Amino acid sequence: MRSQIRAAILAVVSVMLVATAQASARALPTGGERAPVLPATVRDANGDGVTVRNASRIVVLNGDVAEVVFALGLGSRVVGVDSSATFPAAATRVRQIGYQRTLSAEGILALRPTVVIGNTTAGPPAVIQQLRDAGVTVVILPDSDRLSSAWTKIRNVGRALGVPKRAARVAEITRRQVAATRRMLAKARTAPKVAFLYIRGARVQLIGGAGSRGDVMIRAAGGVDVGSTIGIQGFRPITAEGLITAAPDYIVVPQAGLESVGGRDGVLRLPGVAQTPAGRAGRVLAFDDQLVLGLGPRTGVALRELGVAIHPELQPRR
After folding, report:
1. Which of 138-142, 198-202, 312-316 has the lowest average pLDDT?
2. Residues 61 and 106 in one domain
3. Is the model's pLDDT at 259 over the cut of 90?
4. CB-based contact 49:57 (threshold 8 Å)
5. 133, 152, 177 — which closes off a domain?
6. Nearest-10 crossing angle of helices 164-185, 2-27
7. Is the pLDDT of residue 18 over 90?
8. What is the DSSP-derived secondary structure letter of residue 158?
9. Residue 120 — left, alpha, or beta (φ > 0 → left; ψ -120 to 50 → alpha)?
10. Which of 58, 231, 275, 287 is surrounded by the fewest CB atoms within 10 Å?
């Protein structure tokens, strides 16, 4: 019953935030390119200038970048995405090219892209070089785990694909949503301890710490990231001792990770979880992977959902 109530509350919050986003969009200038203005030159992750001359057939190497491309109104031009592209729904209907970290050049080249765009997570590097050697325009943008990288990413993608005005508008909406959410979360009376667990079945069971996107989101939502508190940098395998020592009040997992271990009960069986305050109370929160980790146009939505979930005093009364 409690989980159903929480799900209902989060659904209401999501609807409220969408309405806020629409209102913000109406308040912003309506100007924007009718079509990409090309050629366009952008600095890549190495600081080199890359010129895009044709964006009629776009292959996107990362799910978070794909979300930005669709948010900029260029979804009809996308001919390939990686398997991490789960939002919007239209992205899941595009031809898949594999997983962002383990790509192959052959499948991408078969799609006849006029431009390939992604960030430094995409690879391996040899595949990126193969694409360039084949004469394809490849834009590898810098990636960052700072909250502000959400709107920076939007602007960079927009510049690369010839729609900088559209990108500036979406970036500003995103920034305003995040700022409004943080003002709301500043009213919280508590600073709950939260553990971010990245799980992929029995093989991958990690706890996030300083520098991870879990840490960024937890702190921005007004929580204390216990991984950082116990000295973890990035991600480290979960240990019962470490998790019990950290004593989180809440455990956050990506939805796909939750499903990979058989749901909430599977998370509670992970080392040490049942002995934490979160485990004893069953406070396991699952969020769509790309929502909570993407740092893109929905960052405000993610912060609002996470913040309301870990701060019961902010939940709307029913």
Report:
1. 312-316
2. yes
3. yes
4. no
5. 177
6. 130
7. no
8. H
9. alpha
10. 231
Contact assessment for residue 39 and residue 164, using Cβ atoms and an 8 Å cutoff = no
The C-alpha atoms of residue 237 and residue 103 are separated, in whole angstroms, by 25
Distance, CA of 288 to CA of 63 (rounded, Å): 12
pLDDT band, residue 290 (cuts 50/70/90): very high
What pLDDT band is residue 318 in, cutting at 50, 70 and 90?
low
Bridge partners of 204? 200
Residues 6+ apart with CB under 8 A from 259: none
Q: Is 10 inside any structural domain? A: no
- Nearest alpha carbon to residue 249 among 191, 207, 182: 191
Asked if residue 149 and residue 94 are part of one domain, the reply reads yes
Buried b (16+ CB within 10 A) or exposed e, 133-165: eeebbbbbbebbeebebbbbbbbbbbbbbbbbe
Average pLDDT over residues 165-180: 97
Same domain for 226 and 282, yes or no, is yes
Domain count, the chain: 2
Q: What is the pLDDT of residue 315?
A: 82
Q: What is the structure's pLDDT at 26?
A: 38
SS3 205: strand
**Same domain, residue pair 261 and 200:** yes
139 and 116 Cβ atoms separated by less than 8 Å: yes
What Rg do the C-alpha atoms of the chain give, in angstroms? 20
What CATH number has the domain bearing residue 50? 3.40.50.1980
Checking if the pLDDT of 27 tops 90, the result is no
| DSSP summary character for residue 73 | T
Candidates 54, 59, 60; CA nearest to 37 is 54
Task: Check residue 16 and give its pLDDT.
Answer: 40
- Asked if residue 60 lies in contact with residue 138, where contact means CB atoms within 8 angstroms, the answer is no
In which element (H, E) is residue 49 found?
strand 49-52
Do 80 and 199 belong to one domain?
no
